[in-house]
Design a protein that fits this description.
The protein is mainly β. It has 2 helices and 9 strands. The protein has a domain of 98 residues: Immunoglobulin-like (Sandwich), CATH 2.60.40. It has a 4-stranded antiparallel β-sheet, with no helix packed on it. Strands 5-6-7 form a 3-stranded antiparallel β-sheet, with no helix packed on it. The termini are far apart.
Length: 158
């Protein structure tokens, strides 16, 4: 009697099993290069910094064109989304042998974050240079008051 535990896959097809590990490795490499996966979609890594006057979000989007990026603010939800499209083809002839290499990569990404302040959408700016997206969100005048801790006295319950 043979052990058939390796035959049981979520899809019930033993032909797919060898590719599961390969798919996981490819997903991991892509996520390491671009960002993490959230709900099946790639989400770029974001750096957040702030001063008294603004919050700045910086996202690395290597290989993405400026025209393929969409930044939107709806209420307190800031969304960065877009698509990476890349194609490279190399062909050379060496000693009567033709070497070919064609590499393509495509992928959609999206990241939504909650903004801790009521921000005027007309004051938000976004710049993109050398694969880095920088979004500046000016803080409202009363932002410092909102983030300062307010001590609340705890009283005995009667």
């Amino acid at each position: 009697m043979t052990n058939k535990s390796w035959l049981s896959t979520p899809w019930g097809n033993r032909e797919i099993e060898p590719f599961r590990g390969f798919r996981t490795q490819i997903d991991s490499l892509f996520e390491d290069w671009f960002g993490r996966s959230m709900g099946g979609m790639l989400a770029p890594r974001i750096d957040v910094s702030e001063t008294d006057k603004e919050v700045v979000l910086t996202a690395e989007l290597p290989g993405v064109d400026e025209k393929d990026i969409d930044v939107s603010l709806v209420g307190d939800q800031l969304t960065i989304k877009g698509e990476k499209k890349s194609e490279q083809e190399d062909k050379k002839d060496e000693d009567g042998r033709v070497f070919h290499r064609v590499e393509r990569s495509y992928g959609a990404f999206q990241r939504t974050m909650t903004v801790p302040y009521a921000v005027d959408p007309e004051q938000v700016s976004a710049q993109f240079k050398d694969g880095v997206l920088r979004i500046t969100l000016p803080k409202p005048a009363d932002a410092a008051k909102r983030t300062a801790p307010h001590k609340i006295e705890v009283k005995k319950w009667m």
